[in-house]
Design goal:
The protein is α+β, with helices and mostly antiparallel strands. Helices cover 43% and strands 27% of the residues. It is built from 13 helices and 17 strands. Helix 9 packs parallel to helix 13, helix 10 crosses helix 11 and helix 11 packs antiparallel against helix 13. The longest helix is centred in the middle third of the chain and has 58 residues. 24% of the residues are buried. It binds adenosine-5'-diphosphate.
Length: 476
Amino acid sequence: MPSDVFLSIINRNADGILVIDQQGVIRFCNPAAEAMFGISTAALLGTVFGFPIVVGETTEIDILRNGVPTTAEMRVVELEWQGETAHLASLRDVTERKQAQAAIMLRNRAIEASASGIMIIQAGGVTRPLMYVNPAFEVITGYKTQDVIGRDAHFLYECNPDMTVNQTLDNALREGYEAACVVQCVRKDGSEYWSELRLSPIRDDNGTLTHIVGVQHDITDRKYLEAEQIETARIRASLDKERELRELKDRFLSMMSHELRTPLALIRLSHDMLHQYGRIAPEEERQQYLDSIRAQVEHLTEMINDVMTVSRAERMVEDFSPEIIDLITFCRDIVEEFQLSYSKTHRIVFECEARIVRASVDRRLLRQALTNLLGNAIKYSSEGSPILIRLDVDGRSAVIGIVDRGIGISDEDRTRLFEPFHRGHNVELIPGTGLGLAIVEQAVRAHGGSVQVESALGQGSTFRVSIPMVAVNGRG
Ligand code: ADP
């Protein structure tokens, strides 16, 4: 080969080529070597190479090129240069390859050190064999690498009783979907554990599924803790329910004994008087005793009816059947009925400034609630005192206020007012069962509404019932 062709090949070579004489001095270099050292040919020629020269072997040398560390792979052969034995060193820049290798090593070490069980599953074939598992996988499952490599990944969840989850994982492995499931697994020693398993597909540049990466965490402790918490909550709820029922029963019994005693004592008294003096007492007195017996029996019947109303109201709530009505007419009708019945004892006034107030209500249920509230306003205020029923619109709610100037409610009683059988401490001889407001609350809640109370002892009370309104065009 002519020497100029040979030189041209050397000069165009991407590898750096140097000729170094016996004294270690650089005698020739090509442009690639110049670029690799970042030093001009003129400066390189005549300088000492400075790296150990090993003929026939590939060694690595670290060069500082313009301050940037560069790694070159060096191969050295002997040759004759201008009549003397010299060395021809060919240098290849392997910096990028080294960096890539270092990154891969780092990633491998991270996978090895990870606390999550990591596995790589081969895709593409008929089965889905495991081709790598990390040490954490071995710890979690009890299987050693050699036990599982080549085994179909399906074995990991084959004992899981939830078939839907298993189907999801099968599909993810077959089709290469992402999947994250909680699976009940079995370790090599047969013990069970809960695993949070996530499968992620790996595809090549053409989008072909090549591998699937599985990551699993042992969540057995968490599962047990959750189960324990659920069980504790269940026990607590059932104890609470039991306590509530006990309290309800106690309140019911104390209300019954209290409320029954008075009418029964009065009946007994009237009966004894009639028995002893019936024959000699004047007709008018006898009639008074008989009237008293009748009144007390009526009162007792009323009480029993009240108790029955609770279960009737519960049924009404269950059969909740609302219709869109105008609340103004509805409230006015109820107020008029009360005005007629109580015209001698109370001044009952209805006020409403709106033209139309439409709401979706169950007539029977809302009537029961308003009747209870109006009945209480009358019952707990003295004769002649005024009672006001006001219908207002507040945002998207209709608010029915029942205002009296009666005995009022203490702060202590107000917090427990809606509990069944709870009666205020100031009711004295005013009869009642403590059930009316419990029914009111149930009924209003069924409408998606709420009841609020404001009161001051001896000054009166205001009950406000809010019910969601329906827009005039019929939409909520
Ligand atoms: P009852 O009136 O049969 O006792 P409720 O459930 O209707 O039962 O009322 C519970 C308690 O709330 C009453 O016992 C009373 O103490 C108090 N209460 C209810 N409404 C009023 C009111 N308008 N004024 C004063 N106290 C009231």
